[in-house]
């Protein structure tokens, strides 16, 4: 006992260091990306307010870029309206999706675990697992919400897995990020016999309640066949430019609860 | 004494804000990642209790983690750095010891001394940070490159910051 006390006194500094490290590692490894503690999250009040103040100042520097992308989006939407008018596109049957616009107040691109913070939260009708898109394409999924801010898990995070399909032939696969290469992703689980070309569009497949069908994700850059599994490994370039992302839209699904209920009932039956 | 405490509170706030609002947002390269906030722990006074160094390091790390949604990552790295701080201060100590009234900055013992003192500390910090971030030996070469490149970039900016911030103190 005496020796133990002497040991603690003599090594107090090292033991304090060890305790702090245990604390840090507990934080680091106990946190699950989908149910994270509220405090250590960029959507908390302290970080939210400071980042929003900062973005209010810096937003003037990229107004031109934002304008350009808005005009491009308007052009695309106008053309789409004309097509509806000429009935080239079949009318959408009550989809149940609606949109909330939000400003990006914080974003990281160069890290491995990248996140985005936006200035809309519970008070604006944001909830967990909402889909997020930009004017060009898919961005990510909401993973944490406070009253006025939320954190998004973007495509450029290794934890993101999204179900996508090749637009022209409807074969679906699973999309993940190529670590360290911002704006590039990898589509796997597409069988080797499927034909496609460089530049083909990859879109969401609409199986989940998070995203509607046919939201653009990216374009095929190159592909190779995995020699062991005979599946394609397709490299794609995201439509969303994460280096220049300032405004996003959150997708609200009126049937979200219903969809989840059916899924969970099915899972119960399978158990 | 009180004046010095107030100074360090502001210094902590500024170094963390500069880190999260400027350096964490520069997206020019994915290899040169400046970890500017370590300047706070580097410039803590010589005679500060070593336990306080650990806890202040933890505090600065937690603040950076909150902004980055990475609980424990920067905290762990900077506490490692705080732990080894005294060791490197002792190694590079002048023959008659440090002048307790000075700060461990460039203006006290020169640029050469400062770079020697901070290089290994920042290297330790970046080593822990990027290894924990990647948490695999996959792409280990890339991680090593990141560690060294970021250490050099960090030192360059900290030396510049040190010259700008503390010129008047002398």
Give the helices and strands, then pairings.
The complex is a heterodimer of chains A (about 270) and B (about 170).
Chain A: H1 2-10, H2 12-30, H3 45-58, H4 63-85, E1 97-107, E2 116-118, E3 131-133, E4 138-145, E5 150-154, E6 162-166, E7 172-177, E8 184-191, E9 201-204, E10 216-225, E11 231-238, E12 247-253, H5 256-270
Antiparallel strand pairs in A: 1-2, 1-12, 2-5, 3-4, 3-12, 4-5, 6-7, 6-9, 7-8, 8-11, 9-10, 10-11
Chain B: H1 2-23, H2 39-42, H3 50-68, H4 73-91, H5 106-134, H6 140-165
Structural description of this entry:
The complex is a heterodimer of chains A (271) and B (170). Chain A has 271 residues and is of the alpha+beta class. Chain A has a domain of 81 residues: Thrombin, subunit H. The mean pLDDT of chain A is 84. Chain B is built from 6 helices and no strands. Helix content of chain B is 70%, strand content 0%. With 170 residues, chain B is an all-alpha fold. Chain B has a single domain, classed as Arp2/3 complex 21 kDa subunit ARPC3. In chain B, helix 3 packs antiparallel against helix 4, helix 4 packs antiparallel against helix 5 and helix 5 runs antiparallel to helix 6. At the A-B interface, helix 2 and helix 3 of A face helix 1, helix 3, helix 4 and helix 5 of B.
